Each structure stands twice: as C-alpha cells, then as structure tokens.
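Problem: given the chain below (862 residues), write out its structure.
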Amino acid sequence: MLTWCADNSDYLVFCASALTVLGVLHWWVYRTGRPGRILAGTWVAALGMLVAGWFMVDAAGRDERARLRHMVEGILPTYAREMAHHGHSRITLDTPPDDPVYLGLINAQIDWLKVNPTIADVYTFRKLADGTVVLIVDSETDYDRNGIYEGERESRTAIGEVYAEEDEALERAFRGEPVFEDVPYTDRWGTWVSAFTPMYDEQGALDGVAGVDFPATEWVEAAAQRRASKTGFLAAVLVLLYASATVVTILRGQLAERTAGEERIRRTNALLDAVSRALLRFVAEADAPSVMRRLLSDILLLTRSEFGFIAELFDAAKGGSHLKCTAIADQAHDEATHAYFQKYAAQGLEFHDLSNLFGAAVRTGQLVICNDAANDPGSGGLPPGHPPLRNFLGLPVHHGSTLVGLVGIGNRPGGYDAEMAEYLQPLLITCANIIMAQRHDRRRRLTERELMSARAVAEAANRAKSEFLANMSHEIRTPMTAILGFAENLLEGYRTDAERSLALETIRRNGEHLLGILNDILDISKIEAGKLTVEHLPCSLCRLLAEVLSLMRVRADAKRLALSLEYIGPMPNVITTDPTRLRQILVNLVSNAVKFTEAGGVRLIARLVPADEAATVQIDVLDSGVGLSPAQAAGLFESFSQGDTSTTRQFGGTGLGLAIAKRLAQLLGGDVTLVGSTPGSGSHFRATVAAGALTGVRMIEDPSAETVVVPDPRPLAPPLQNLDCRILVAEDGIDNQRLVTHVLQKAGARVTVVENGRLAVEAALAARDTAEPFDVILMDMQMPVLDGYGATAALRKSGYTGPIIALTAHAMAGDRDRCLAAGCDDYTIKPIDRRNLIATIRKHSPAGKGRGSEVPAAGGIG
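Solution.
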C-alpha cells in the first residue's frame, strides 16, 4: 500500500487539491446563502471523474514507460551484436589500452552514443572464473552533453575494473537471460534504469554481458510528464465543471431569491437544468457537436423560438472571420428552410459574409435584437438564399474578453428583448466553455499528429542511416578484402613479376576506390554544412565531355555496352564553370548508367539552352538499364539513399553519388533531375549548369567533328625530385613512420623520427641549439602526449623559425587554415602523394627556396 501511494503521490496530491477546492467552493456557496443541488451533483461527478481519471493517468504513465523500455530493449541486442562483431571476445584483462581491436570497440561505443542520444551509457561486463564481475569496454561518456569528456566520471573505464555492485538483473543476464531493470539504481556514475543482454563469441559460448543505461531522472520525468498531461486535461475539465457549477449555483440562488413568480422560477430552473445536462453530458461523452445540438434544442424550447444556430467564430486564412455552425435547427418545418438546410447538410453551414444580420453581433461584439427582420433597414438583411425570418436575436459568445462564437435564434412569437438575452447568459457561458474545450481538443490532436509525424520522420531518418552504415560497411570491406588478401599473397611471394605487378595494381586500385568513398562522404558533409565552394574557370566543354567518355568507356566495354556522345546544335568553344565539379557530376551520372545497365547502351546528348539572362548547358544521360519505379524515384536524390536495399545488394554503391551530383549542379547554377524512368526499360537523367558569359566566345557548329585528344588516364609520372636535406618526422604510427622514412630516404633526405609532439619539440630545439638544425619538420597533427598543433605552437613560442609542414588525415574544410593558424608553413594530407610531399618539402628546404617549383600530380601511396 505504501509503495502504491508513493508511485501515485502526484495523483493523490491532485485529488486532495481538487476535493479541497470543491470543499472550499461548497463552503463559500453555503456561506453566501446560495445552496443548491448542483454542488451535490458536482461532488458525485468530481469523485467519479477522479476515480476514472486515475485509470487514465496510470495508463498514460505505464504506456510511456513501456515505450521507453521497448526503445532501450530494441537498441541493446543490436549493440551486443556489434560489439561481438568487432571482436569483443578477443579482449582480455591483459589487452593493452592502445590495442586496435579495443580502440575499435571504444569508437563503436562512442558512435552508438552519438547515434542514440537518448541513451546515457553503453558498456560490457565479463565474469571471471572466481565469480568477479569486471568491466571490459566502457568508453568515454559525455553525460552532460557539452561535447567534452571531462572528469573521472566521464573518462574511459580501464579494462578489468571490478564492478562490486550487487545486481540481480546482471546475474540473470550472465545466466543467458535478457533483462530490463526498470527500478532506478545508483552507482558511482549516477542513477539509472538499465537493460542487460548476454553476449556470445564465435563458438556460441557466453562471452559477457552488454549493458545500456537510461537516465533514471528522464525515465521518471517522461512518465511523470505523460501523467501530468492527462492530469492537466482532467484538471481543465474539473475547472470547467467547478466554474459552471458555481455559476449555475450562484444564478440559481439569485433567481431563488426573487419573487417574480412561479413561471419565472420554472423557466430559470429549466434553463439551469439544460446547462447542467449539457455539462454533465459533455463531461461524460466529450462529444461537443452532440452536446451543442441538444443545448440548441433546449434553447429553442425555453424561448419558444422556431429557428436557431450555435456557431463558432474562426479567423480566416487571409484576414477577416467566418462563422461555422456547430449546431443548427429549424422547428418551422416549412419547405423553404428544409431545402436550405439540406443543401448545406454535407459540408456544414458556414457564414463568410458577415455584413448581414447574422454578422452584426460579430462585427460589434454586442447584443443584436431585430423584431422586424424583413423591414428593418439597419439589419443588413439575411445571407443570400436564406429563408425569411420574422425576428432575430443575436447573442455574442465571449470567453473572457474574447469573442469565440454566436448564438442566433429567431421566429419567436412576440419577438425578443434584453431581458430574454439576460436570461440566456448561463447558456452562453456554457457554449463558450464548450467551444474553448473544442479548441483545446483540436490543438491537442494536432499536436499529437505533429508529434507522430515528427517521430515517423525521425524513425525514417534513423532507418536510412542504419541502412547507409550497413551499406558503407559492405562498400569499405569489399576493397579492403582485396587489399588485405593481395598483401598477404605478396608476403607469401609470387612466382612471376607479372603476378606481383597485378597484385600491386589491385591493391592500388582498391585503395583508390576506398579513397573515393571517403571523398564522397567528405563532399556530402561539406555540402550539407554549406562549406563547399566552387570555382568559375574557362574550360572546353567538348574536351571535358570527351575525357568523361574516355574514362567511362573502359567500364562500358567491360560490360559490352555501347557508349556514345551526341550534340544538338552548335556548342561554345569555352564555358565558364568549375571543370572539376562538372566532371564529377558527369562521371557520377554516366557511371551510374553503366552500373545499372546490363544490355544495350548509354547515350550522352549535349546542347546549349539560350536564355535572356544566362545560357545553360544541358547534358542528358539515357540508358537502357533496370529503370526505376515511382516509389524508388521519390527518394532518389536523398543522401544515403538508393532505389531499395535489393539495388544496393545487386549493384553496390553508397547512395551518395546522385545527391552529390544534384547539389554540385545547383552550386554551378543548374540542377540534376530525373526526366523519366520505366522499370526494365531504362532511365533518363538531365544535368544542367550555367554556361557563364558567352559574349565573344566562338561557337562550334559541328562539335562532334572536333578532334579531342584525351591523354592516357595514367601517364608516366615524372621522376622524383632529389632531396638533400635533414628532416625531422613527428609521426606516432609505426607503419606511417616506416613509409615516410622510406620515401624520404629514397629521395636522398636524412631522416630523424620521433613518435609524439613533445619529443618533436625537444629534438627540434636541441638540434637548433647545437647549430645543426633540421631543414624541415614534417609534423603529424594528431599524436599522443602533445599533438601537432600544440607542438607547433610551442616551437613558435620558443622562437623556432624553421619550416614546419603539417601532415594530417584531416581533409575537411578549414583544416588547412587551422594548421596554418597554429604556425605551420604548409599543409599536406594523408594518404600521402609522394611527389606532392617531396615537392612541398623541397619548396621549403634550403635547396628549393625561391625556385617556385610546381607540385606535380601523381598517384597517392599508403
């Protein structure tokens, strides 16, 4: 019982408050001498509502907890499989903290926390032979979500740290049972609600337990908020009930004090009964239209009117207002009114023109009495087509100072007066409350729909990202398989030089494919961040198209596909655009067409589209491939999206190519669109870019006759330049140390290697002080102990003036500026382009200063 009271303390406090308010209200009413039956009925209604409300509030809290539990339980098995997939079983208590497998697991945990921000922490346990439970993988955790891992609480937990907390749920998980522990518990990291699931190694043996923590405060607050929202709705209804009951009771007491006669008392009681019935019916049924229709019927009966309506006032979308009837009735039953109401029965009767008699009360906000509607020149007449009325009473409905509706009644024997309007005030208050309740309910339902829509969008985005990650894993692992496999074959040795060359070319080709995937991801990241810039340079469109055709012909020939280029009309000799990005757009489109075409061919059709302001170049790419359905075409240009998962499985790809092409084309003043596609028959894509100023540009009448010499895609690289200098290499990776040392020593340099920034600072200053300074420092920017930024800043602060060249894998926009701002003289990226690296070093070494040698283009190594 005590536990139940604690769990429902919020609702018990609400009940006590509600009954206290009702008791005070009851005491005040009796104190002022206005007792009535309404308050007694209100006690019954309030108690009934509070009992029913408990079930509603309790269900809301349970539903929210169930939703959160489902979310956490859904995430955990996936996380456990991911940890097992990344080699969790290979981690032992002797595994060093810099072990690649362990670091991969740490990074996977960090990525999981970023993708699932509602989760506070993820970790893994293992039980030792003596029964001791230890933590295995527990990454840095940004509990306060400030983007910084700070303090012992947010730091990484060491492998093998003993977990001394006694936890029955954890023990059940070690017995092979998935467990969700929804009772909050506290450890040294905080107070949580947790879930555990067993993890198994490749042989199916129990390897450990994966755990997920959800903040207990958010768990409790989420359920409390859902309960509070339901409690708030119940409070609003109770306030409506109390207020109406108070008004009705006060009015009944005032009318009881009068001695105007039994008829007046009867009519007043009938009115109040109508209000009471309406309120109780609304509380019981929450069906506003039905309550309004019954209320209108009571109004017509009490006033002996033949015609009436209750309408809500709406603000029109383009200014002004209109009335929409919630209830309408006509007791005359003549042909004209019957036909009029039947005409508008389906869509409901609305009054948009408020310049007539019905709109007078809305325009002025005041009572309107018209006892000669046919002959009163100031009435404004009736709405067009409305049957004639003998008289009319327009009663504006206010909620506070706001006009929210109109009650109109007509055709009463003897007409209307101000006393009748005063008599109907309780009904107007009731109408106002019901109209406001309707509005609150509409807003609530709209909010729920928006929340459901937002949740659907978020879930769709999460699914898209999950599919992208799975697809990207495949795209990366496929070339990595070739790279690692042929590398192992090289270690074992080949019998012939031809086999060895083929293996090296395979490794190089797959490495470049991996680099292309990374470049696509960087491009889409820059585009979405708004940091991708394009150039506007003069270039030959015909030559560029011929280059793309030559590049793609190898793939087309491999699949025995025809690949052709056609021109429609004359073309400019030169256009102004970004040739690199235009080539990227066309290569994406043509490679897609070749990839998804098994028979037939691919056609490129180019033309110049003149315009008053600026001409555009239009290039159509048509294929006879698999085609697209309307559903597949709908999300074609979204990032990380392909036609469907079967497309990804069959043809591969990251789903970024078309998204990048479209956004690049938009940056170049054009677009990429799908003109048409038929499943099984092929697709038609169109790329457009601005041609730039064409004044004075020669037009080529027959572009297809132009002879375009396309160089071999892999020309012989120029010989490496000789380095006769002393170089300090600061690099923490052993393999990269060996690679860079080999390249530089082969070029003639004398190389000294250190593994962190602090040693680089010490070595550089020591060499300077012994009058044998290094000619160039090659500084990796991400190293342990002291990174390259800190090391460069420390050297410059110490007065070191020698050239420092940044060497980094960071290739995002702004990384170069950051390196230069730290004090570096130049910047080069990984994977290393050996010729670019040597030329850059030579430019800053004593032998190369002042020569202005250009950096030759060459393939990368790595």
